[in-house]
Description:
Layout: E1 5-16, H1 22-33, H2 43-69, H3 76-92, E2 98-109, H4 113-123, E3 127-132, H5 139-153, E4 161-164, H6 172-182, E5 192-198, H7 202-206, H8 231-246, E6 253-258, H9 270-279, E7 284-288, H10 297-313, E8 318-321, H11 329-340
Parallel strand pairs: 1-2, 1-3, 3-4, 5-6, 5-7, 7-8
Amino acid sequence: MPNKRKIAVLLVNLGSPDSPNPGDVYRYLTEFLNDPRVIDVSWIGRKILVNGIIVPFRHRKSAAIYQQLWTENGSPLIYWGNEVKQALQKKLDLHPNVESKVFLGMRYQNPSLESALLSVKKWNPDKIIVLPLFPHYASASTGSVIDKCMRIMRDLWVFPEITFISQFWDHPGFLDAFAERARAFPLDDYDHILFSYHGLPERQVDKVYDDRMCANHTCEHEINDENKFCYKATCYATTRAIAERLGIAEEKYTVGFQSRLGKGWIEPFSDELIRDFGKKGMKRILVFSPAFVADCLETTIEIGVEYQEIFHEHGGEKVQLVPSLNAEPKWIDALEDIVSSRF
């Protein structure tokens, strides 16, 4: 009887400081922000901006925020990454015709992509499936993971078959899992619903197109052959798909973008929308953040704490965050399908 085909599944997320201490946050921010796919300016401009201004002046403030985020299990992103890894392994073990093994790596800091790919190499699989845990393709996230994996693997003498999964925002299981998370909340109790996605500089979404103009491609209204890899277009499409599953009327929700680092980022900005909702007399807001599959600083702190403060300051009462998918069973089922369809 022939041996089973060996399939390595490498899950990759953004990463986290090793601890919330300023030194570890300094190292994390330095690696993260020096990525040319994250800050896409000239080499010298990026070094001056990141190493001379942003990191030295922001790492202590960021460390204080990570202190709020940290739990008894450490970084939520790392904790949930390991939980997902173990849960997915149990599901894949049930496939009779392949021998699969799930690995976890982070684009920045630990467990590093280098260490994860070294473990993959030692296992000697017939095929590697790399799944960046970002539902929507962006050069600064998925593109960076793929680029880094290829740079690490180019020194290998033997290459097995390799598959990269660029995005999965339109997978029915992913959409169903987020809709299921929202069903824990009575939607009619909220004045409005905000779908908040991580922001990007406008120039980065413009680069998707030959004419370098995202604004020319109806990204807020439809997915087509030209904009199918446009981050902005897929975020709007994700919103429409989840809203349809939950029966949310179009006038009941708004799409926004959070976590901007400067001017020229995709609008509207989520924090400004939250402020305006309060000024309009709204009292209760429900917020989805479907760009994140695990609880992290951008969801737990930015939305759950900072947006609550903004809303309350302008007359609102409650900003309710729909929790991330973490290791929910429907999400693990979706991951199993996404991965096993590439076996």
